[in-house]
Amino acid sequence: MRPEPEGEAGRQEGSESPSAEDDRLRIVEDLSAVAAEVDVQQVPEALCRACVRLLPVSGASVSISASQMLRAMWCASDGTAARLAEAQYTLGEGPCQSATALAAPVLAADLTQGPDSRRWPVFAQQALQLGVRAAFSLPLGAGAPAIGTLDLYRATSGGMSESELRIALIVRDAIFFAVLNLQSVTGPRPGGEAYGVASWVAAAEADHTEVHQAIGMVMVQLDVDPEQALDRMRGRAFAQDRTVSEVASDVVARRFRFRQEADSGSNPHDDGPDGAEGW
Predict the structure, then answer these.
(1) Scanning 34, 119, 137, 215, which has the fewest C-beta atoms within 10 Å of its C-beta?
(2) Distance separating alpha carbons of residues 71 and 81, to the nearest angstrom
């Protein structure tokens, strides 16, 4: 459901607009019902789709951060939301990167022009190619560092009203506590099988494990720190119109290795054990 419009046209005669507590109860009930109606493995995606019904947005995704460098998408309402999240991680810029660093909401109402398009020029260009005109990122958790972000997008330009932002923050809080609950619900089933809820966060963590492993390998190959290793992976991903995750997969599988510049004293023809091209 979407939030009721403000004003006399959006109210029943003689009634008052919903309070913040009314909105909170309604949202918690809605998300709880969604979680109860689907298979346990489908709950993350169902929650993201519920965000779209609750808010005036075109799509939503939730990403979990292992650190300032590593983040993994937990769920997405649609393919565009998923590609938008991956684009920000690959580029190292965008609303979700800023929201994570600032531990505060970042609202980009118009990526087609003005300050938002200039703040993240490369991300804005890719967002427009995906049909995204506005993007909003809300950090999960109180204080820094945030454990992740709820990321929303619109196919049309435009900001959020005060009431829309209030509801978005309530949705964000509900998602945050859902993530915390998933992390805390562990233990074996009677037959020895792990509870399905424990696999939700584990699946997201698995996504960034390969990236983390690749960063370590690139650090050794280039004798650089983790930030520089990730920057090199991002540079290759951007140049080849790929994602960081795809580059990481090649590095871990030894289909590709980074090499130092020839003038650094390394062998310029050292392309790795499989003969893959160096970068």
Answers:
(1) 119
(2) 15
Mean pLDDT, range 145-153, rounded to an integer: 87
pLDDT of residue 5: 44
- Local confidence band at 239 (pLDDT 50, 70, 90 cut-offs): confident
pLDDT digits (tens, 9 = 90+) for 13-63: 444 566 778 888 888 788 878 777 877 677 788 888 999 999 999 999 998
Q: In the beta sheet, which residues pair with residue 107?
A: 136
* 3-state SS assignment for residue 33: helix
Q: What proportion of the chain, given as a percentage, has pLDDT over 90?
A: 26
Q: What angle do CA 246, 42, 99 make, to 5 degrees?
A: 55
Domain boundaries, the chain: 8-184, 196-264
Q: Which fold does the domain 196-264 belong to in CATH?
A: Arc Repressor Mutant, subunit A (1.10.10)
Mean pLDDT of 94-102: 89
Q: Which is the CATH superfamily of the domain at 8-184?
A: GAF domain (3.30.450.40)
What one-letter code names the amino acid at 192? Answer: G
- Strand runs labelled E in the chain: 59-65, 71-76, 106-108, 134-140, 148-154
Name the nearest CA neighbour of 70 among 99, 105, 47, 100.
100
Please tell me whether residue 108 adopts helix, strand or coil conformation.
Answer: strand
User: Per DSSP, what are the bridge partners of residue 139?
Assistant: 149
pLDDT value at residue 243: 77
Strand order of the β-sheet with 59-65 is 71-76, 59-65, 148-154, 134-140, 106-108
